[in-house]
């Protein structure tokens, strides 16, 4: 794999932004690393970070480069600070950045596929929320989305982060039944005639977000929205996410290797 620490200017944010990118490379003499690459532009996973993290965290806490290398998939890991992947009421337009500007810029910099069936999004905690938000809001752009220990019910998280939520959403009471509410987005997708992305959700049974995840899973099923769900005894920690990102990569509907 090639690893790029990429810094660039964002029109949406009005400042320089950052992302880590790993790109497939077939290397026949490299020791200890399986490699693969598809012909043409690369299938791409947009991999999102959590509330206290940044664009470097997946590379620092997991072996994502090693896992992706064998599959021939590019991975784009952007930084969005503590934004909950939203256009902030008192701050930059992070939703515009992550949902519109970043994919276009990444494809202009690197040989990344544009086709829906070759694009996927995943994340942990706040990033799990962001991944589902991206796929439910833009089902025509992503074939699959995965949430690992996701903050899937942010209506219920407002009291946990009152200062953040005031800056991000203004009045937290406006989140429910808005485009920032995953339950609302699930309703909108079910009611539409749009193609539905494959969805994956996992959470540890000892995680403080476990009940929220069960509630979202059950709501999706009740609305007729299929979602693959997985749980095991675990807390909100990187050992679990390192294991589960491997599950996610195996689950992704990647093209058949040539």
UniProtKB/TrEMBL annotation:
InterPro entries attached to this UniProt entry: AB_hydrolase_fold, Esterase-like, Mycobacterial_A85_antigen
GO molecular function terms listed in the Swiss-Prot or TrEMBL record: acyltransferase activity, transferring groups other than amino-acyl groups
Pfam families: Esterase
Protein name: Esterase
Species of provenance: Paenibacillus pectinilyticus
Chain segments annotated as transmembrane: none
